[in-house]
Automatic annotation (TrEMBL):
UniProt family annotation: Belongs to the ATPase C chain family.
Gene3D superfamilies: F1F0 ATP synthase subunit C
Pfam families: ATP-synt_C
InterPro entries: ATP_synth_csu_bac/chlpt (IPR005953), ATP_synth_F0_csu (IPR000454), ATP_synth_F0_csu_sf (IPR038662), ATPase_proteolipid_c-like_dom (IPR002379), F/V-ATP_Csub_sf (IPR035921)
A cellular-component GO term for this protein: proton-transporting two-sector ATPase complex, proton-transporting domain
Keyword terms, alphabetized: ATP synthesis, Cell membrane, CF(0), Hydrogen ion transport, Ion transport, Lipid-binding, Membrane, Transmembrane, Transmembrane helix, Transport
Site residues, Reversibly protonated during proton transport: E65
Protein name: ATP synthase subunit c
Membrane topology reported for the UniProt record: Multi-pass membrane protein
Length: 82
């Protein structure tokens, strides 16, 4: 049983999708954790600003999460289009 061109392309697409999601999830995970940690430190210093800090943290985490969503889109394109 020989591996033909179409099978090789499909295998490379599956491998690429796994790598895209694996590496694409690291950045948002680290970034969101860092942002949450810094927000907790800031709330500990100035508890009266908790609302503003939480709102700003959530906006920053949403922006950070968009890179994870982009990698999910790339992975889905590799799985279902290629």
């Amino acid at each position: 049983m020989a591996i033909e061109g179409a099978d090789l392309i499909k295998a490379a697409a599956f491998l690429g999708a796994g790598i895209a999601m694996g590496l694409g999830a690291i950045g948002p995970g680290v970034g969101e954790g860092f942002a949450a940690g810094k927000a907790c430190e800031a709330i500990g210093r100035k508890p009266e600003e908790a609302g503003l800090l939480t709102r700003t943290m959530l906006v920053g985490q949403a922006v950070s999460e968009s890179t994870g969503i982009y990698s999910l889109v790339v992975a889905l394109l590799l799985l279902f289009v290629v």
